[in-house]
TrEMBL record:
Keyword annotations of the record: Coiled coil, Methyltransferase, S-adenosyl-L-methionine, Transferase
Coiled-coil region list: 421-469
One Pfam family recorded for the sequence: SET
Single GO BP term: methylation
Organism of derivation: Drosophila hydei (Fruit fly)
Record's protein name: SET domain-containing protein SmydA-8
Gene, per the UniProt record: LOC111603131
Domain SET: 23-254
Family matches, as PROSITE patterns: SET (PS50280)
SMART domains: SET
Entry GO MF terms: N-methyltransferase activity; protein methyltransferase activity; S-adenosylmethionine-dependent methyltransferase activity
PANTHER family referenced in this protein's UniProt entry, alphabetically: SET AND MYND DOMAIN CONTAINING, ARTHROPOD-SPECIFIC, MEMBER 4, ISOFORM A, SET AND MYND DOMAIN CONTAINING, ARTHROPOD-SPECIFIC, MEMBER 9, ISOFORM A-RELATED
Length: 492
């Protein structure tokens, strides 16, 4: 384990610009693993715990059609001429081309000699975040070495592949080692393609390392959540629930709505550890039944959940009839359901998907299962973009229903605040407000109608009275006379 004291010193240097004199956190020995971030005082739900700035940040360059973004300010540029005219092989805007940051990047990449400096190459652009580690101060580089890195067989591949894109790529072992180490740290605790930090329903298109955030340990029900400041890309970490003094502050490395087995596999393969949080030790996942499937016995209406063994292929038990099933048997059911639902998710018609989820899927997969939750999330995302084949009433009722379903699962899991929850609650409020307004409008229209009816009745009464005054015979029910009287009254 790397010394918590040295890590703290280096973090203090890194966070000095925030000038937090009385931080709500400290680095200490963790009960979860090694070292972690602890609360130094009681924290209220929603309170800011800390801010962190990226020690390293660069373009993620995952998709070829997004390579025309400035490597310094990250703004998208016209896709005709965006490469540096100095021949460094990096995209840069005319303003940033004159900045110190680009001067440093430009000198380094020019000295390495890109094979095709005028062509945007995702391997080169992606490497920039890693290569920037070379020009950090010694303390900053030490901080990188203080962070956990999964030094598996693959971590050298990226730099090895990037080397082929340059004529004079550095051969100095120390420099190559800094880059390899940075790749490993980014993959373990940074924001990178291989880290699955899409948990909070927010897009983050960079490759970046936030050192204090990187020290935080994982929990499948994290007690904190983070957002980014758009201008600076600084990270703000808040308490998701009330946190007691001395309690460890945790984040999550996995998606929130995946079952125990999938999370275990991901954490084991990508992060190299086995999670033993309360959710992972509970086969019902705190009563949310995210992994739950129907019992294979058609006469039984029980749910089947995987045993907690830590094995990749555990047995499954029915909670009602207690029948045991093998992992392979249950995976057949899960794969069938996932296939059927994903086929509808990928189809063009949202109406068909909603109909399927509301009326059909419940017959072969419990609505608590993650594949149903995922499908509902994708429906909400598509509704937020508009342009779908649903009428107003269907849009409204679906929004209301699915937002409620998902917040309910979050409550069952004991998940506190998060950006996702805020978004869902906003949708709910909007929809409820819209409904209330509609109700009001309806009530108003009904009132108007009632008023009109009353006026008509009054007019009738008046006419009848007039008729009686002019011709007492009309009062006896002479229709023709009454009509004549009415006509006379109207003319008058
Ligand atoms: Zn720029
Ligand atoms: Zn340049
Ligand atoms: Zn866990
Ligand atoms: Zn059963």
């Amino acid at each position: 384990m790397i010394c918590p004291k040295r890590t703290s010193e280096l973090l203090d240097l890194h966070l000095a610009p925030f000038k937090d004199k009385d931080p709500a956190w400290e680095v200490g020995v963790s009960k979860i693993a090694g070292r972690g971030v602890m609360a130094t005082r009681q924290l209220k739900r929603g309170e800011i715990i800390f801010q962190d700035s990226p020690l390293l940040i660069g373009l993620a360059a995952h998709e070829e059609d997004t390579l025309n973004a400035c490597s310094v300010c990250f703004k998208m540029l016209p896709d005709t001429r965006f490469m540096c005219r100095q021949g460094c092989g990096l995209p840069v805007c005319s303003l940033c081309a004159k900045k110190k940051q680009h001067k440093t990047d430009c000198d380094m990449f020019k000295s390495w000699g890109s094979n095709e400096p005028d062509v945007a190459n995702s391997v080169i652009i992606r490497l920039l975040c890693v290569a920037r580690a070379i020009n950090l101060s010694k303390d900053q580089r030490d901080l990188i070495y203080c962070l956990q890195a999964n030094l598996d067989n693959n971590h050298r591949t990226e730099v090895r592949n990037a080397a082929k894109c340059f004529k004079n790529f550095p051969t100095d072992k120390k420099i190559v080692e800094i880059m390899n180490r940075t790749v490993a740290v980014l993959r373990t605790n940074g924001f990178d393609k291989t880290t699955d930090r899409t948990t909070d329903n927010q897009e983050f298109n960079y490759r970046a390392l936030y050192p204090l955030f990187a020290v935080m340990n994982h929990d499948c029900i994290p007690n904190s959540y983070y957002t980014f400041e758009e201008k600076t890309n600084n990270m703000i970490v808040r308490a998701a629930v009330d946190i007691a003094e001395g309690e460890e502050i945790t984040t999550t490395y996995t998606k929130l709505f995946t079952g125990n087995i999938a999370r275990h596999l991901f954490l084991k393969m990508k992060k190299g550890f086995t999670c033993k949080c309360p959710r992972c030790l509970d086969s019902t996942e705190k009563g949310s039944f995210i992994s739950g499937l129907y019992c294979r016995d058609t006469n039984c209406s029980g749910l089947v959940v995987p045993e907690i063994t830590g094995l990749p292929h555990p047995n499954w038990n029915c909670l009602v009839c207690k029948q045991k099933s093998t992992h392979a048997q249950m995976m057949k059911s899960q794969d069938f359901a996932s296939g059927a639902i994903n086929a509808k998710v990928n189809s063009n018609s949202l109406r068909t998907l909603v109909h399927y989820l509301n009326e059909k899927s419940d017959s072969f997969i419990p609505s608590s299962n993650y594949v149903v939750i995922d499908a509902k999330m994708s429906v909400l995302a598509r509704l937020a973009q508009g342009r779908e084949d649903c009428n107003e009433e269907l849009v409204s009722s679906t929004r209301l229903r699915y937002s409620r379903d998902i917040t309910q699962i979050m409550d069952q899991l004991g998940l506190g605040d998060s950006l996702l929850r805020a978004q869902l609650e906003q949708q709910l409020h909007k929809e409820e407000e819209r409904r209330a307004k509609k109700q009001q409008e309806l009530a108003k229209k009904q009132q108007e109608l009632a008023d009109l009816e009353q006026k008509a009745a009054e007019a009738d009464k008046l006419l009848a009275a007039l008729a009686v005054a002019e011709d007492p015979a009309a009062a006896a029910g002479d229709g023709a006379a009454a009509a004549a009287a009415a006509a006379a009254a109207e003319q008058a």
